[in-house]
Specification:
The chain is an alpha+beta fold and 113 residues long. It has 4 helices and 4 strands. Strands 1-2 form a two-stranded parallel ribbon. Strands 3-4 form a two-stranded antiparallel ribbon.
Length: 113
Amino acid sequence: MDFICITASPESQIEEFVERTGAGYQFYHGDEITLKTVIRSNPGLVLLKEGTILGKWHYRNIPHTDELKENLLSYALELHQDSRHDLISLGYIMALLLVLALLKLVRPIINKL
């Protein structure tokens, strides 16, 4: 799996970073606004496969190196499925709350009849 860095930082900051960390990957320049739109954190990690975003992580939530060494693609897909299941569960809860709210509104009308 190839790793690259896309940054809006000036060349001098990139060189300083490489010297300090020994980063052994390519750096590319990108527009700051575009980068903020894509990743929504600084820094962050985006997993791409053939131009499709499979996963995005805020810098505080980047997977541990053990997870990265295994199969990052499977890890990203599993996280996506988990978040999808969470959204479906939230939808069911919201539907139940809506039904309960409607019953509370309708009950006084029924009692008057």
